[in-house]
Specification:
Elements: H1 2-41, H2 54-58, H3 79-85, E1 110-121, H4 125-130, H5 141-151, E2 156-161, E3 165-166, E4 180-181, H6 183-191, E5 195-197, H7 207-218, E6 225-227, H8 233-237, E7 240-244, E8 247-255, H9 276-289, E9 292-298, H10 309-320, E10 325-327, E11 334-341, E12 347-354, E13 356-358, E14 368-379, E15 382-397, E16 404-408, H11 414-417, H12 427-437, E17 442-444
Parallel strand pairs: 1-2, 1-13, 2-5, 3-4, 5-6, 8-9, 9-10, 10-12
Antiparallel strand pairs: 1-14, 7-8, 11-12, 14-15, 15-16, 15-17
Helix pairs in contact: 5-6
């Protein structure tokens, strides 16, 4: 009996041990199996180990089946996996996307290049003297300070340099044979002007050597184009072209004459004179190289506010030759804007005269001036002038000839007018005179309305 009881006790102990094994070991094995199986079924794209690649995953023996020898069915791609697959850093070709999610196709942007041009930069001797500083140097920044901010908004800024400039003060002269200070170059470029038309009736007033030396000084100014006067035959034969926002603009400048002087025989390239055959040839060449061609003739009768027959005839010839715009100087007073229509139906704006920019000339009408504004539109491969405008300005100087400057009419007040040498040059006078000459102050090309 004791032996039986002992065996029963031993059997109970074994049963308890067996139950414990079942309760403890089997769940542990099942847990470990489940964890191992999940690890093997994890997608490589979801792996946190950056060294794991698809190639490595496919070569893994564990990918052939689970621990029980069953084949593994790949899990379907999740949204996160799809997002990673189209990441441009990780793939060279993105799958097709919903049209509503795609970026809009890039189209050619419409670009605008804005040009302004002003009239004669004419330093009389009193203007030259007014630039003398207390330390004996000369500075002319004040002439341009009141328009500097306004013109800074434009891409192309043209000024007509009426007279030769030199560092030889013995040649600083006034009417009738002019010569001005070379320091004007610094003031002009510091103000922001980047195109200078220089073929005028005064171009040869101080002779060849002075002209050549001045032109060399202009070349030291970065990104400034000087047109109409040249230091070599090669430069003379080339076309003056600037590029702005991808638009190439050609500048052609000529003078009607040289006040009885002539271009030196040993330097025939110094100044371009206004000859229709030469102009036509230059325009044809320019049209092959540039998108827009602008002609700047120095022409007309002084102090007359209407263009003469010669100007009108020449303007039409220039337009027919292919110019896109014409901007004139020389008369020292403003002359109107006219929209010429060629035989092919092309509209060509022509500003016959912008008047003075700076001078010491008396009389109110010679203090009223124009800034020409052309807007060039680039729409894909098409480039054209689509808008022109005449903007009024005022040539200002004091009765004691010590202060010279230029104002936009919009900045010119009655209070300022009271200190002008010509007291009749009030804002109301300037506006009335300007409107009388510029019956067309702005024009949209391609539009039937002014």
């Amino acid at each position: 009996m004791r032996n039986r009881i002992r065996r029963l006790g031993e059997n109970n102990i074994l049963k308890v041990i067996a139950v414990l094994i079942v309760l403890l070991v089997i769940p542990t094995l099942l847990f470990m199996h489940s964890k191992w199986n999940n690890k093997q079924m994890q997608s490589p794209a979801q792996s946190t180990d950056p060294s794991v690649t698809m190639e490595d995953f496919a070569a893994s023996p564990s990918n052939q089946g689970d621990v029980l020898g069953n084949a593994i069915t790949p899990e379907p791609e999740t949204e996160a996996t799809t997002t990673e697959a189209v990441n441009p850093i990780e793939t060279t070709e993105a799958p097709a996307q919903n049209p509503s999610e795609t970026e809009p196709e890039e189209v050619d942007k419409v670009e605008y290049v804005d040009l302004i041009a002003v009239g004669d930069n004419l330093y009389h001797l009193s203007i030259t003297n007014a630039g003398k500083q207390p330390d004996g140097t000369y500075n002319y920044d004040s002439i341009y300070e009141n328009v500097k901010s306004f013109i800074s908004e434009f891409d192309i800024k043209v000024i007509n340099q009426e007279i030769p400039l030199t560092d030889d003060s013995s040649k600083w002269q006034g009417f009738p044979v002019f010569g001005g200070p070379i320091q004007a170059v610094d003031a002009i470029t510091d103000a922001g002007f980047n195109v200078v038309t220089h073929a005028t009736n005064h171009s040869m007033d101080q002779g060849k050597d002075t002209a050549l030396k001045e032109l060399e000084y202009w070349k030291t100014k970065k990104d400034v184009i000087v047109s109409g006067m040249y230091t070599s035959q090669e430069d003379y034969d080339n076309i003056d072209i600037g590029e702005y926002k991808g638009v190439k603009v050609a500048f052609l400048n000529y003078t009607y004459g040289l006040n009885g002087y002539s271009v030196p025989k040993d330097a025939p390239y110094l100044v371009k004179t206004l000859n229709i055959d030469r102009v036509t040839e230059d325009i044809a060449k320019a049209k092959e190289l540039a998108d827009i061609v602008i002609v700047f003739p120095h022409w007309g009768e002084e102090y007359i506010t209407t263009p003469n027959a010669y100007q009108k005839d020449m303007a039409r010839r220039i337009a027919e030759a292919g110019a896109d715009a014409i901007i004139g100087c020389h008369p020292h007073v403003i002359q109107p804007l006219e929209i010429l229509t060629t035989s092919e139906g092309k509209e060509v704006p022509c500003f016959y005269s912008l008047g003075n920019f700076i001078s010491n000339m008396p009389r109110g009408e010679r203090c009223v001036e124009c800034m020409a504004h052309l807007r060039i539109k680039k729409d894909g491969g098409n480039v054209s002038i689509d808008y022109v405008e005449a903007i009024p300005m005022v040539n200002y100087y004091t009765p004691n000839f010590t202060d010279y400057t230029v104002y936009m009419l919009s900045d010119y007040s009655d209070e300022i007018a009271k200190t002008h040498r010509n007291t009749d040059v009030t804002p109301r006078y300037v506006e009335a005179f300007f409107n009388n000459v510029f019956t067309t102050r702005y024009y949209e090309l391609g539009s039937s309305e002014d």
